[in-house]
Amino acid sequence: MIEERTAQLQQCMYQYSRAIYRSVKDQIDPYADRQTQLESRRAVLEACEQTMERLATDPLYFAKPDRALFQDIRRYFPITAQAQVAWAVQQGVTAAVDFIQEQIESGLLDGGVARCRATTRKGKPCQRTPLPDRDYCPSHQHLEARAAA
Ligand SMILES: [Zn+2]
């Protein structure tokens, strides 16, 4: 059953990545030679797929996935197409994020590996495993007490 759900989810994520790719592929540098264009297309498609894959496996810890994807692919587009590509990427990624969120809320997908909810002093999410049935790791467990109070 779990395998079936995973396969279904992967299929959906694949469709989202194809949709994003289709919405931007015609904007890829039109003055590049054919070989470069093919390589750019492949790179853009791969970046879309990787983003969707990461969204599906680590949805709660992937901050600003639309910006991350745009940063990865923007060099393949002429300056005049940047705004349009950024918008298309944002639309496509938002749709995928909403879909994943629905899956999590309906309990069809867990939020990936459990991690401590705290933010480190460097502003990065804490990567440690929380205590059993808790939201925080041993070194951040004082934050839980504060949240409960
Ligand atoms: Zn922690």
What would you say about this model in short?
The chain is mainly alpha-helical.
Helix count from the secondary structure assignment: 5
Taken as a percent bin, the fraction of beta residues is: under 5%
Low-confidence stretches: none
* Count of strand segments: 0
Shape: elongated
Mean pLDDT: 87
Q: Which radius of gyration do the C-alpha atoms yield?
A: 19 Å
Protein structure class: mainly alpha
- Relative helix content: 55-70%
Q: Identify every distinct bound molecule in the structure, by name, code or SMILES.
A: zinc ion
H/E element order: HHHHH
Kindly report how far apart the N and C termini lie.
Answer: 40 Å
Biggest sheet details: none
